[in-house]
C-alpha cells in the first residue's frame, strides 16, 4: 500500500512512508519548534547526559566568570533537535544517513528554537534515492545559530524500504 | 611555510585509541530520561515498541555517542573541584581515549561535526567506541596559522554492527 500521497502520521510527526518521487528541490521541511527553553529544560538535559557544564545553569558563573550574555542552550541539545526533525521526516522506511552542523552562534535560555530544513538536491542510488538538505536552527529574532546539511535516503515508490542497518551507496 | 604542522604533530594522524566500552548498556530508564529531555516522544523508544525494522525498542539516534560516562571507581570531578571557583563543571566522562596533541597554549574551538547513522542501539545492548585522528592540517587565517584536527569515532554494538560514525573538527590556534 502506498501511503505517501496522504502521508499519514504516526505519533507526533512521523509519516509511515515517504517516497523519493514525491520530493522536489526547494521543498521545506519542519519547522520543529522547541521552547521556550527554560533553565529547567537545560538542567534536565544536563542530568540525562551527566555533564554539568555550569554555563547552562549557573548564571553568576556564566555571566561573571565566563563573561557570557546569559545561560546558553547546550549545543549537545540542539544537535538532538536536528536529528529528530530529519529522523521523523524520513519516515519508517527512509533513513537519516548524514548530518553535519556547526555551532556558529549562541542561543540563550528563554528562546524558542525553530528547526528547519530545505531540499537542495536529489540523486538516485541503486536501491534508494538520496535527498540533500540544508538545515538550521533559528530563534524568534531570526538568528541562525546552527547551519548544517544532511543526506536522507528515501525508498523509491515501487521499491523496498531503505536497507537497515543502513548500507551507504557505493561509488 | 607551515609553522604549526610539525612532523611530530603529523605523526598523530592515524593514531587509534583502544576500544572503550560504555560503563552501562542501553538502559530503558536512561533512554526514557534522555528522550524526555530532548522532547522526542518517538514510540520506538518505549519498552515494548513494535517497529519490526529495529527488532525491539531503540534509543534516539545520537544516544550511543552520549553513553561514555564516568564509570564506578573513577574520581568525582565535582567533589575534587568543589573549592575551585574556576571549575566550569565540564565532565569529559570516559573521554575518547586519544592522547592529547602536544599543543600547549593553543585554544581549542569546535568547528563542527558530521555524523553518519547506520542503525540505532537497541535496549540492552552494549556500545563500544574507538577513535582515531583522521586528519590534521593547517590553514592560515587573518589572525595567523591554525591547525584543524579531525577526530573520528566509531560506535559499535557488541555484535560488531556499526551504529554511528562521528567526525569532529577542532580548530587549534
UniProtKB/TrEMBL annotation, chain A:
Highest taxon in the source lineage:
Bacteria
* Name this polypeptide is given: Acyl dehydratase
From TrEMBL, chain B:
Which InterPro entries would you find in this protein's record? FAS1-like_DH_region (IPR039569), HotDog_dom_sf (IPR029069)
Report any Pfam family annotated for this entry: FAS1_DH_region
Tell me the domain of life.
Answer: Bacteria
Question: Which parts of the sequence belong to the FAS1-like dehydratase domain?
Answer: 25-162
Name of the molecule in the record: MaoC family dehydratase N-terminal domain-containing protein
Species for this entry: Bosea minatitlanensis
Amino acid at each position: 500500500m502506498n501511503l505517501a500521497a496522504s502521508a499519514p502520521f504516526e505519533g507526533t510527526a512521523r509519516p509511515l512512508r515517504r517516497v523519493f518521487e514525491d520530493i522536489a528541490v526547494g521543498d521545506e521541511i519542519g519547522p520543529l519548534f522547541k521552547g521556550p527553553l527554560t533553565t529547567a529544560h537545560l538542567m534536565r538535559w544536563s542530568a540525562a547526559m551527566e555533564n554539568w557544564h555550569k554555563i547552562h545553569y549557573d548564571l553568576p558563573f556564566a555571566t561573571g566568570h565566563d563573561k557570557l550574555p546569559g545561560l546558553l542552550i547546550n549545543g549537545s541539545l540542539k544537535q538532538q533537535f536536528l536529528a529528530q526533525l530529519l529522523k521523523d521526516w524520513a519516515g519508517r522506511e527512509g533513513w537519516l544517513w548524514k548530518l553535519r552542523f556547526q555551532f556558529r552562534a549562541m542561543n540563550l535560555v528563554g528562546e524558542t528554537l525553530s528547526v528547519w530544513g530545505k531540499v537542495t538536491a536529489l540523486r538516485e542510488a541503486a536501491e534508494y534515492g538520496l535527498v540533500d538538505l540544508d538545515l538550521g536552527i533559528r530563534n524568534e529574532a531570526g538568528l541562525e545559530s546552527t547551519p548544517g546539511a544532511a543526506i536522507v535516503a528515501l525508498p523509491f515508490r515501487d521499491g523496498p524500504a531503505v536497507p537497515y542497518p543502513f548500507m551507504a551507496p557505493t561509488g | 611555510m607551515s609553522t604549526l604542522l610539525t612532523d611530530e604533530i603529523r605523526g598523530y594522524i592515524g593514531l587509534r585509541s583502544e576500544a572503550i566500552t560504555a560503563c552501562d548498556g542501553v538502559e530503558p530508564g536512561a533512554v526514557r530520561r534522555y528522550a524526555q529531555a530532548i522532547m522526542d516522544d518517538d514510540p520506538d523508544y518505549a519498552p515494548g515498541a513494535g517497529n519490526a525494522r529495529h527488532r525491539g525498542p531503540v534509543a534516539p539516534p545520537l544516544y550511543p555517542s552520549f553513553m561514555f560516562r564516568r564509570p564506578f571507581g573513577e574520581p568525582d570531578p565535582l567533589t575534587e573541584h568543589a573549592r575551585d571557583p574556576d571549575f566550569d563543571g565540564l565532565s569529559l566522562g570516559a573521554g575518547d581515549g586519544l592522547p592529547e596533541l602536544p599543543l600547549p597554549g593553543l585554544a581549542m574551538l569546535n568547528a563542527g561535526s558530521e555524523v553518519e547513522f547506520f542503525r540505532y542501539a537497541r535496549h540492552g545492548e552494549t556500545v563500544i567506541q574507538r577513535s582515531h585522528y583522521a586528519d590534521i592540517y593547517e590553514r592560515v587565517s587573518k589572525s595567523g596559522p591554525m591547525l584543524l584536527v579531525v577526530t573520528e569515532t566509531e560506535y559499535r554494538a557488541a555484535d560488531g554492527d556499526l551504529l554511528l560514525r562521528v567526525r569532529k573538527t577542532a580548530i587549534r590556534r
